[in-house]
TrEMBL record:
Protein name: Nitronate monooxygenase
EC number(s) stated in the UniProt entry for this protein: 1.13.12.-
The entry's keywords: Flavoprotein, FMN, Monooxygenase, Oxidoreductase
Coiled-coil segments on the chain, per record: none
A Pfam cross-reference name: NMO
Gene Ontology molecular function: any one: monooxygenase activity
CDD domains per the UniProt record, alphabetical: NPD_like
Species of the source: Scandinavium lactucae
InterPro entries for the chain: Aldolase_TIM, NMO
UniProt-listed Gene3D superfamilies: Aldolase class I (3.20.20.70)
Amino acid sequence: MNNRVTELLHIRYPLIQAPLYFLTSAELVAAVSNAGGLGTLGPHAGQDSLPGSRYIALDRMRKEIRKVKALTANPFAVTLINGPDMSFWRPTAEMLVEEGVEVVLINEVLDAEIYDFFKRHRIKTLYRALTPTIANSKEAEKLGADIIIATGFDEGGTVPCRVIGTFSIVPMIADSVKIPVIAAGGIGDVRGVRAAMALGAEGVFAGSLFLTALENPADEKVKRLIVNSSAEDLLLFRTQPAYYRTLPTDLSPKLAELEAQDTDRETMFKAMNGYHSLWQAMRLGNFDQGVVSTGTGISVIKSVRPAAQIVADLMQDF
């Protein structure tokens, strides 16, 4: 059964694997795409160390894209990597064109020049705001985004600044634009897919579920922790820019204590080891130096499975 998402992206199923930053790899992305979904490479995908410069990161991403293309003939997406000053978007975008990437995920940025660039090169764009609103969704549509990803507070990683759950955000955004909307946040099995479609989404965007994929480069301790945990185990704490969640780690009691003391966001961010927190805990398995962040849909994740099985389970109605 085709819909606008599958037709736009030339994929079998309306399922996008979230980029998950360094917790993606060519093997994971190709497995998702080969199974009929859209795999997505995140920044630092497939890497065992963080790059020393943007140019090193760009070269590494080019190599990872080529690895994906050697493993699948199907479409896949790449995250547009850019610095805070946005000065580096063009070298990245030009590399994506050179490598024949068909779909690009643009996080947060609403810049006419960027959307025009990809439109000229016939590359499909997925727009994902940190905090989805009617206003930024309409602006993305106006600029030429092909699909909007509406993320609810149920997601893992850096959660939206507004506490609006996936069940509420999806119909709100779907009713405000004419282009397809994809639901993100808390989707763990086919029931979440069915609910998202009933709410007006035309596909789903899943991240935490693919952390437990056999092909995911996350530390094995992380996969076991997710499988053996539920949403009841998650700790929510304030930090920059909004909130983070973590499953129990060696660091989490300290974060819980600071949260109980109404500690300011900047101090909380430093206490969680900043953005290195996820790299340390989830990629390297150093639970004393970081957090294991997931969405609230983990309660239904019961095993580590190949990505193809995850796709088949979510997309069984298609």
